[in-house]
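Subject: mismatched residue count in predicted assembly?

I count 365 residues in my input, but I want to confirm that the predicted structure covers every chain. Input:
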Amino acid sequence: MKSFGRTLLAVSFLGVFGTIAQANDKVLRVYNWSDYIAPDTVRKFEDETGISVVYDVFDSNETLEARLLAGKSGYDIVVPSNSFLAKQIKAGVYQPLDKSKLPNWKNLNTTLLNNVAASDPGNAHAVPYMWGSIGIGFNPDKVRQALGADAPVNSWDLLFKPENAAKLKSCGISFLDSATEMLPLALHYLGYPVNSQDPQHLAKAQELFMKIRPSVAYFHSSKYISDLANGNLCVAVGYSGDVVQAKARAEEAGGMVKVEYSIPKEGAGSFYDMVAIPHDAEHVEAAHQFINFLLRPDIMAEITNNVGYSNANAAATPLVDEAIRNDPGSYPPEPVLATLYAIPDQPISFARVMTRDWTRVKLGK
Ligand code: SPD
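Triage response: the counts match. Full output below for your records.
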């Protein structure tokens, strides 16, 4: 996690004088994904507005949702994915945005706005922040050492064929720890609808994972960034920008470790992460100021340049580094985009069933 200028001050201030802090709008509590903002973004916002930001991070929608559904999360800004947004809106988790306070809304890409309106009609509650895919991060040297020059790095066969997974075991495989992302991936590989609720389909998906379970080193949704960068893993199922970050870190460390990202030819899950204000936020004015700040092209381009994810801000595109705009992991070309599927939005009750099945996979029984 990054450390920010006034963050610690705000934490102690809240701890000692909680009620006073809540009464003014000079504090903002943000809950975002880990590794998802530029090192300077929060400090710049604090300097420009005099608002102190308390910035916490999570690495799965499941964690965020548990906080939100428990109520009184204490956060003013949260960042759910579109696949969780619709049901959370229905559950009354968010308040409508006051667009009169968001003059920079005009910078957003209208095609993306239309896409995410499927989860949030009229774009009433949330602003698209970043988007990406869930593919394969890998160390090409180690993978080819284990599987030879023809290793199928452009196919989910790399992991789902037990004989491949067994050969990769010694150099390390990691999976995201998210039932709602990993089970649809297996359903898709098996040729079932990604949103299938058919118990037989789910049983087959679970069985597929069980066959390769002994070869998986761990299940975690952020640790793989440093492990790929340090050469401690050879394959990770991961988020596009996180793998781009691992690659950048490996290059900064001298380039001895190589990291690449592949969107397998069978297709991969795609997501939009959305910025929203919980219904019980205490600093609503400051939350709108923060969202409007994020919608500035210079701020959004700087975030993409640091985190490697594509953003939803059309006006920011010319300011994004050419290397990132030309990186097919961050900005996939049209034919690859056509192979992506949207991670399904499942009702809370079925998401619980998936979590139970996924826990069995993790336990290996
Ligand atoms: N480190 C930032 C990762 C952001 C990933 N969001 C993904 C959501 C997938 N449903």
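Residues 1-23 have pLDDT under 50 and may be disordered. Marking this ticket as 'not a bug'.
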